[in-house]
Every structure is written in structure tokens, then in C-alpha cells.
Specification:
Ubiquitin-like (UB roll); four-stranded antiparallel β-sheet; alpha+beta; 577 residues
Amino acid sequence: MKWALLVGLGLFTGLVLGWATFERYHHNRVFAGVEAAGVAVGGLTLVEATAKIAAGTQSIAPPRLTLRAGDKALEVSATELGWKPDARATAERAFAIGRDRFAERVAALLGQVRIPLVPSVDAAALERRLQEIARSLEYAPVNARVVFRDGQYMVAPEKAGLKLDILSAIEIYVKYPRQTVLEFFPRSIAPSLTAAMLGPVARKANDLLRPITLVYTEPSLAGGGQVHKRTLNVSEVAALLNVQEEVKINTVALSKILAQTATRHDRLPVDARYAPDREGQLVVRPEVKGWKMNQPETRKRLELELLRPDVGEVGLTVVPKTALVRAADLPRAEDLQLLAEATTYYSGSTAERIANVHAAARNLDGYIVPKDGVFDFNSAIGSISPENGFKEALVISGGRTIKGVGGGVCQVSTTAFRALYRAGLPILERNQHAYRVHWYDNIVGFDAAVYQPYLNLRARNDTPGPLVVRSSVTRTTHTVRLYGIPDGRQVAVSKPTILSRTPHPPAQYIVEPSLRPGQVKQVDWAVDGLRTRITRTITRPDGKVDLDVLNSNFRPWRAVYQIGPQPTVPAEEVASR
């Protein structure tokens, strides 16, 4: 009995000591038998367990995650959403087994404790990716709209939009990263305009669809009095309406139709002018009255009439237009005296340049500037276009000499400028050329460049009567003579003074693939830069003297050559040299 008691006491003591040793050993270690992420970590320290789990999960395949937004679904890899294995967190979960509950220690010893992998989520990466995915799934609401189709207005129905709750999805996935389905919690966005709202608008617009006749009645003038009608069909009327939340007028489309009608039927007045008769003597050609649609007033009235379904015909507002220069205002041709003249030379010009000089000179001839009126060169010669008789020739544009319609017109503007300047007229606008042009170098700095619609030549007629411009050409010269009523002024124009000179830069060579190998073509010519000054002295009959200065500053200009590409040398020839 005593022996049995001693044996029992010894066994108990051994168990206590063994358990104490077991506890001491596992104080800083995972309890024996624990498995984490498929890796046995029992008996390992937290650091050792972390390292072993990290090594064991290094090549683990990430889970797939299904993203749902209503009836739409998208499957992605969890790593796209910032998911990754967290070895440290997994090891800490394993280390916690059995610390508070004895039953967990026993289960571990029996091999019944398996800790799953604990993942972590990079919230910033998750948000970036979810925002990208949301943009591909979200869509804005589409408002109902009124459309014109098959001859009538109808309402295209609205469509609701879709908005995804990204923040809630992020919060859920960060908290529960092991789930395999993530809901976006879609929210429907209602459109601001519905079919029910636009139905009455479409019905109102349909009531306005009817043919409308525009009536253009010429004033009862010489050659006038005709009536022109244009009937707009239903589709054309619909194009004049802007139907959205309400019915409005499409002012742009309406203005376009009125402009087309005015272009077709307006007749602008023609000023009285002097023209040579069969004997070459100047006679007065009387003015011609005209008419023109008052487009602003017509547009205002049409905007009102188009919105009245009972209106089927609208009269356009057409008003007579009188000429600025009337025959009664012109003195007799024999009373006109030569006020000033100028001649420039263009010998050696190309056929295209000569054609442009002749076209501009022809249009300028007979131009009349009323007393106190303005000489406007661009207005006098009309548009520089092929339709007006102009051809392509060399012009200065964008810092280069290139081909353009109207090259050579500056010959005519320069001649006119010299005559206007010598007549003592106030010059309102004169533009020099960018560089010296050799056609005008006989009097350097006495030129005038024009380039529609930006550069013009303008002068005021401050003589006692109208100014008549005569423009004539020979094969090599252009002459402008100004006729009017003299007021006794005397004009003296000095010779040009060269203030400074800047040498031209070296020539530039540009490879031009369209040329033959070795071919050279000059496209710009070198000239030195100059600063020049011309002085004009105007002495009035009362002895008053006016002095003005004409300054010019020409840039130095380099010669430019286009050269053909170098020929390609065959490889066998290179090897044999």
C-alpha cells in the first residue's frame, strides 16, 4: 500500500515536471502539432514559423475573385486587387493556438489544428484597380430626346445609369480578403429627362411641320420687280427647329438659308464711274441702283413665323440700295486734272505674274474715291482668286517665298501707293514687304505689300472732289494716274536714304526628293537687309508745310536652294574602290 502510494506520487511528480518542461519549452514557440498554410510549424519560434510559411507559400496560386455589379460579373486574380499571402499574420495565428484554451493544445498534439493562410490586402492598390474596373462597368444615364425620323418628331426613350459603391466594396474586401465573390452594390441613376416629359414637346414640334414658302420680292427699280419663291419642305423646316426640352429656332441653320437666298437674288448697286468711250475719251457711266435683303430683320420675323403653325408663306424684307457714287456728284471729265502718277517695271516676270499684274490693273482702272472717302485697294480689285482671273505665282508668306494665287498683285499696289503718296494724300495703311523685292529696287523703300484679307493699302481722299484712278499696262510697265480737282498743294518726295545695311545670311540647301539626283533649283534669292527713309513735304496754298517720313526695315534674306537626293551607290562599287 505504501509502495503503491510512493509509485503514484512519483508518477504524478514526473507528469508535473514533464508538463512544466513542455510549457517552458513552448513559451516562445508554436505548440507542437500545429500546421499553418499547409506547413508544419509546431516547435518553431514566431520568426522561424514566419520564414517557413513564407517559403512554403512563395509559389502558391492566388485565388480567383468574382466581381458582381447587378447582372454583370467579372472574374479577376486576387493579386490584381492587392491580395498577397501574409506569412507573419499566419504565423501569429498559429502561435496563438493553445495560449488560452487547454483543449487547443490537446487538439494540436493530436494533429487536429490546421490554420489556413491569412492574406493581406494593399488598400491603395485595391482602390486603384476597383476604380478602373468600375469605370468599365459604370455608365451615365441617357436622357430621353426628341429626334426627327421618317418625316416626324418622335421621342427616343431614356436609359437609367449605373453607379457602383466602390468604398463599401473596398471596406468589405480588406476586412474579409478570403472571400471569392465581391459585390459592388450597384445603384441606378435616374435620367433628368424622361419620355413622359418630352412627349408634349414632340407633339408641339410636329404641329409646326408644314411646307413654308419664302417670298423674295425685288424693289420696283430699273431691272427689278421680279418675285422669287422658294418652298421649304418638311425636312428643311425641321432643320430650322431645335427641339430639346422646348421648341426653339436653329438660328445658325436659318441664317444659312437666308444668306444663300440673299446671294442668289441680291443685286448690289454699282457706283457711277468714268470710263473711256470709243474714242478713248473719259465719259461718266451712271450708277446702277440695287437691292439687298435685310437679313437681321428678316431673321427676327421668320423666327416668330416658324413657330406659328398657321403660317405657310413669309415675305422677306428686301430694301433698295443706292450707289455711294452718283453721276450727279461727279464733275465733268474735262474738268479733271492729273494730280499724280507713278510707273513701275516688271520686265522678266513669269507669264503667271504678268497675268496677275494685268488682272489687278484692269480691276483698278476707273475706280473712284468720293470726296472724303477712302481708297481701298483690296475692295477696288476684288477677291484675289482664280474665279476673278488670278493665277498662281510666287508670293511671300510665312517667312518664305512660295507659290500662291495672286503673286505679282503687289506690283499694282506699289504703283498705286507711289501715286497716292506723290499726290499728297494721307496714307491710312501701308505695309512694306518682308524683304527687298528687286522689282521695286529702283526706288528702294517705296513699296506696298497686300495680302488678302490681312494686308491692305488705304488712303483718304482729302481733295476738293472725287478721285479717279486710271490704271494701264504695257508689256513691261504698269502706270497709275490719279485725276481729280487740284487744291493747289505742292508735293515733294525725297530720294530714299539708306540708314543701315545688314548682310544676308549664307545660302541654305534643302534636299527635295522630287528633284533628280544632282539637280539644283533656286527658290529664294539673297538680298541684304536695309533700313531706309523717304521724306515727303506737302506745301499748302496758305503756306502751311506738312512733313512726314516713310520708314522701311527690310530683313536680310538668304538664298535657298532645293537639291536632288544623292544617288545610292551599290555595295559592290563601294567594296571595289
